[in-house]
C-alpha cells in the first residue's frame, strides 16, 4: 500500500480549512484511505519545517498517489468542484515518434504526450517526480513493464525515433552527470548507485539497448535506466514531453493517462494535452494519449441490492458523481457509467457498487437482519477427500503436501511419458525451470519427497490427496482441476501387495466393493511406461448405472524412472481420481 506525504497546510487550504487532524482522519476513512500520521502531532517542528500528513492509499488507486490527484478527488467528493474534462489539443501536425523494428527484441512499445505551458514550483516539481517513482514501484513493476521519461521540449527537436542500438553505439551524458558514457559504461557506472542499480538487470544482458533520439540524433533517454542530462527538466521548463516505453501496451496506456491527467492542471490551458503520433514498424500510426472513454452498464437494482440501500436512479447518479464517475440513466433501471481515464481500477459492476457505497457512506448503510437461515457445510468432494486422508493415515502412511507446479521434464521425460500437447497446462513466463507446468500427476512430487529424505530409514509410506490440472477446451478458463489420491511405498523390495492393500482399504472406506459385476472396482492388466513391464494395472470402476471407466493405475515403478529421480530402492505406487465417487 503506497504512502503519500503531503503538506498539511497546503491540503487544508485547498479543502477550505474546515478540518483539524481528527476530522480529516474521519474524512479519509469515509473516502477509503487512511491517515497514518500527522507530523505536527509527533512533537515540535524544527524552525522552518512544515507539518506533513502521511496517508495510506489503496494499491490500485493510482490516481491518488500524488497531491494533485488526492486533493482533486477529495474536492470532488466533498462537492467543492466538478470532475474536470480532459481534452486533447487540436494539432494540425503532432510531434511524432517512429519505432524501429529492432525494439521488438527488448521493449517494443512507446507512447508520448506533451504538456504545454506548465508552471512548475518546487513543490509541484517534487510531486511530478514523486508520482513517477510511485508508478515505477507498483504499476510499472519496478520499470520492468513500463518506464517513464520526461523531457524539456525546449531543449530537443522532433520528430523523434525510438531505436534499439548496440551498447557501444549509444553515447550521451546521463542525468546530473558531466561525463559522456556509452551503454556499457552506464551499466558499470550505476552498479554502485543505490537507486538505479535495481533496474540494470532489465537490459544488462541484452545485445541491444533501447534508446530515444531527437531529430538531431541527440540521446534523450536510455530506458528503463536514465534520462539524458541534455533534456533535463528544471523549474524554468514550460513545455514537457513525456515518453513512456514498455513491454505491456495496457499498462503503458494506464501510466500515460495517469501522468497527463494529474499534471495537465498546471498547463496554460488546464486539462488540455497535446497528443503525439507513434509510427510502428508495421506501418500503424497511433495517437496518444487515448482518451476514448470506457463505459460500464449496470442497473439501480444491482447497485442497490449489492450495497444494501434503496436509492432512486437520479440519487445514484448524484452519488457516483462524487466519485468522479459520470453516470446517465438509460431505459428501465439501467445506468450507463462513463469511466474517467484516471480510474483504471474500475473493471466491472461490483467496482462501481463499491464507489457507490463510499459515496453513500458505509456508516449510513442501514443495518438489517438476515432472515435467510443458512448453514455452511463442506463441499462433497472435500468431505470425500477427508475420508480418504483419514483412512490412509490410519493405515500408518504419512501425508505429504507437494507443490502443484513442476518442470516439464519431471512431469513427462523423467516418468517416461510423452507430452501429446493436449493435456498439460504450461506457464507462459515461468519464474524458473522447476515451475514450468501444472502437474498432471501427484507422482513427481512424492518421488521428489523421498529423494530429498533419504536420511530417514526405509520403508517409506507416503500419500497425498490433492488436485492436478488438465487442459479443457470446453471450460471458460480452458482448464479443469481433478482431485487425485496417490499412495507410494518404497523399501528393500517394492511389495506391490502393500500398495494394493492400501488401495483396497481406501475403497472399503468409500464403500466400493472389489467386484467386476455390479458397482465396484477391479484391476485390469495394462502397460504403462512409468511402470515395470508386466507389473502394472489400470484401476477400473463401474458405477451404479453400469458405466465403466478407468480411474487410475497401480504398479511397480520402472528402474529407469528410479534412476531419473536418483532413488535407491524399489517403489510401488497407485494413483486414482476420487471424483468418480462423489
Produce the secondary structure layout:
Blueprint: E1 3-7, H1 8-14, H2 21-31, E2 34-38, E3 52-56, H3 67-77, E4 87-88, E5 95-99, E6 109-115, H4 122-137, E7 146-152, E8 160-165, E9 171-172, E10 181-182, H5 183-189, E11 209-213, E12 219-222, E13 226-227, E14 240-246, H6 249-263, E15 272-279, E16 285-288, E17 294-299, H7 300-307, H8 313-321, E18 326-329, E19 334-339, H9 349-360, H10 380-394, E20 398-399, E21 405-406, H11 408-411, E22 437-438, H12 443-451, E23 460-471, E24 479-490, H13 496-509, E25 520-525, E26 531-542, E27 548-557, H14 559-564, E28 571-577
Parallel strand pairs: 4-15, 5-8, 5-15, 20-23
Antiparallel strand pairs: 1-3, 2-3, 6-14, 6-15, 7-14, 8-11, 9-10, 11-12, 12-13, 15-16, 17-19, 18-19, 21-22, 23-24, 24-28, 25-26, 26-27, 27-28
Helix pairs in contact: 7-9, 10-13
Q: Your description of this structure?
A:
This protein has 582 residues and is an alpha+beta fold. Helices cover 25% and strands 27% of the residues. The protein is built from 14 helices and 28 strands. Helix 7 packs across helix 9 and helix 10 packs across helix 13 (496-509). The longest helix is centred in the N-terminal third of the chain and has 16 residues, at 122-137. It is globular.
Amino acid at each position: 500500500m503506497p504512502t503519500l506525504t503531503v503538506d498539511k497546510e497546503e491540503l487544508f487550504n485547498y479543502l477550505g480549512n474546515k478540518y483539524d487532524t481528527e476530522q480529516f482522519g474521519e474524512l479519509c476513512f469515509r473516502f477509503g484511505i487512511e491517515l497514518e500520521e500527522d507530523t505536527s502531532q509527533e512533537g515540535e517542528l524544527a524552525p522552518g519545517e512544515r507539518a506533513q500528513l502521511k496517508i495510506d492509499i489503496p494499491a490500485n488507486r493510482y490516481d491518488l498517489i500524488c497531491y494533485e490527484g488526492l486533493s482533486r478527488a477529495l474536492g470532488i467528493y466533498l462537492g467543492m468542484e466538478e470532475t474536470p474534462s480532459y481534452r486533447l489539443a487540436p494539432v494540425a501536425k503532432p510531434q511524432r515518434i517512429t519505432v524501429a523494428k529492432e525494439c521488438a527484441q527488448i521493449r517494443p512499445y512507446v507512447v508520448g504526450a506533451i504538456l504545454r505551458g506548465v508552471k512548475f514550483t518546487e513543490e509541484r516539481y517534487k510531486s511530478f517526480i514523486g508520482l513517477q517513482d510511485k508508478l515505477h514501484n507498483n504499476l510499472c513493476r519496478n520499470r520492468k513493464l513500463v518506464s517513464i521519461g520526461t523531457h524539456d521540449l525546449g531543449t530537443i527537436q522532433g520528430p523523434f525515433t525510438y531505436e534499439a542500438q548496440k551498447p557501444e553505439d549509444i553515447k550521451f551524458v546521463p542525468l546530473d552527470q558531466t561525463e559522456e558514457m556509452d551503454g556499457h559504461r552506464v551499466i558499470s557506472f550505476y552498479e554502485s548507485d543505490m537507486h538505479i542499480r535495481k533496474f540494470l538487470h532489465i537490459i544488462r544482458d541484452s545485445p541491444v539497448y533501447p534508446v530515444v533520439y531527437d531529430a538531431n540524433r541527440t540521446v534523450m533517454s536510455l530506458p528503463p535506466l536514465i534520462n539524458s542530462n541534455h533534456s533535463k527538466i528544471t523549474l524554468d521548463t514550460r513545455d514537457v514531453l513525456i515518453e513512456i516505453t514498455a513491454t505491456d501496451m495496457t499498462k503503458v496506456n494506464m501510466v500515460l493517462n495517469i501522468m497527463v491527467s494529474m499534471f495537465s492542471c498546471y498547463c496554460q490551458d488546464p486539462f488540455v494535452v497535446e497528443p503525439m503520433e507513434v509510427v510502428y514498424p508495421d506501418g500503424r500510426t497511433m495517437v496518444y494519449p487515448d482518451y476514448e472513454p470506457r463505459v460500464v452498464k449496470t442497473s439501480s437494482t444491482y447497485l442497490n441490492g449489492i450495497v444494501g440501500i434503496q436509492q432512486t436512479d437520479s440519487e445514484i447518479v448524484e452519488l457516483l458523481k462524487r466519485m468522479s464517475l459520470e453516470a446517465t440513466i438509460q431505459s428501465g433501471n439501467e445506468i450507463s457509467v462513463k469511466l474517467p481515464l484516471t480510474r483504471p481500477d474500475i473493471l466491472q459492476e461490483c467496482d462501481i457498487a463499491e464507489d457507490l457505497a463510499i459515496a453513500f457512506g458505509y456508516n449510513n448503510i442501514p443495518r438489517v437482519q438476515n432472515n435467510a437461515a443458512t448453514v455452511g457445510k463442506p463441499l462433497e468432494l472435500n468431505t470425500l477427500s477427508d475420508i480418504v486422508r483419514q483412512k490412509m493415515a490410519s493405515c500408518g502412511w504419512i501425508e505429504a503436501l507437494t507443490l502443484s507446479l513442476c518442470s516439464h521434464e519431471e512431469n513427462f521425460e523423467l516418468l517416461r511419458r510423452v507430452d501429446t500437447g493436449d493435456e498439460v497446462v504450461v506457464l507462459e513466463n515461468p519464474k524458473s525451470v522447476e515451475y514450468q507446468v501444472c502437474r498432471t500427476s501427484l507422482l513427481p512430487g512424492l518421488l521428489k519427497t523421498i529423494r530429498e529424505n533419504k536420511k530417514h530409514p526405509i520403508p517409506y509410506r507416503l500419500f497425498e490427496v490433492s488436485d492436478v490440472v488438465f487442459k479443457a477446451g470446453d471450460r471458460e478458463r480452458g482448464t479443469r482441476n481433478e482431485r487425485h489420491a496417490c499412495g507410494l511405498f518404497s523399501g528393500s523390495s517394492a511389495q506391490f501387495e502393500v500398495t494394493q492393500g492400501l488401495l483396497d482399504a481406501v475403497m472399503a472406506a468409500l464403500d466400493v466393493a472389489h467386484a467386476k459385476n455390479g458397482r465396484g472396482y477391479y484391476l485390469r492388466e495394462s502397460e504403462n511406461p512409468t511402470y515395470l513391464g508386466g507389473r502394472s494395472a489400470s484401476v477400473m470402476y463401474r458405477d451404479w448405472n453400469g458405466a465403466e471407466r478407468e480411474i487410475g493405475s497401480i504398479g511397480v515403478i520402472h528402474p529407469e524412472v528410479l534412476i531419473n529421480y536418483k532413488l535407491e530402492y524399489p517403489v510401488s505406487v497407485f494413483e486414482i481420481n476420487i471424483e468418480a465417487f462423489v
